[in-house]
TrEMBL record:
PROSITE patterns associated with the record: CYTH (PS51707)
Pfam families xref list: CYTH
CYTH domain boundaries: 4-191
Record organism: Oceanobacillus indicireducens
UniProt protein name: CYTH domain-containing protein
Length: 195
């Protein structure tokens, strides 16, 4: 599917909280790895429109995804990339793709405006139950790492109820949790000394 609506809830965790959820719920013991490669304009025009662009590398496959605000979730627009196309993107020569290109144009952004800023690698564990996806992530980026619990649901009210129940029953405080690309760029700005 070229587009989908994503309703998700996120909470940063301590290592101890991460281990508790890993033991309490039926997450697989072995994670799979994925790497997000992040793109933005020099003047952060995507961020200013609360949008984000990444290439996700997983199992030797590459998917270009644009995330935009939509209703009470996010609209994700996808294009598959060949390994050669992905390499071209990472080397500063973005290859125009139909689905994301159409959405970027609506945001006033051309492919030539985009610059590669870096990557974030995640060791992910997930399982699904009753139309709800449960995710535990350990992510590494910009000489930093963090732990996160995510829940993706079809319905916002139901998803929020389950999410809060999991945190409360495991004595995990609800934390303001920016998404991965926001954490990546906040950390990158701190490294560069830019504010």
């Amino acid at each position: 599917m070229a587009q989908e609506i994503e309703i998700e809830f996120k909470n940063l965790l301590t290592k101890a909280e991460f281990d508790t959820l890993l033991e309490t719920f039926p997450f697989p013991k072995e994670p799979f790895k994925q790497t997000n490669h992040y793109f933005e304009t020099e003047d952060l025009r995507l961020k200013k429109q609360r949008s984000a662009l990444r290439i996700r590398e997983k199992n030797g496959e590459f998917t270009l995804t644009l995330k935009e605000p939509f209703g009470d979730g996010l609209l994700e627009t996808h294009d598959k990339l060949s390994q050669k196309e992905a390499a071209s993107w990472l080397n500063g020569k973005p290859v125009a793709k139909a689905n994301t290109g159409k959405q970027l144009k609506q945001l006033g952004i051309e492919f030539r405006d985009l610059k590669y800023f870096g990557d974030l690698t995640t060791e992910r564990r997930e399982y699904e139950n009753k139309d709800t996806l449960y995710v535990l992530d350990y992510s590494m980026y910009n000489n930093q790492d963090d732990y996160e619990f995510e829940l993706e649901a079809k319905n916002r009210a139901e998803g929020e109820k389950v999410f809060k129940w999991i945190l409360e029953t495991n004595y995990i405080p609800l934390r303001q949790t920016p998404n991965k690309i926001e954490r990546f760029f906040m950390n990158l700005q701190n490294l560069d000394g830019r504010h």
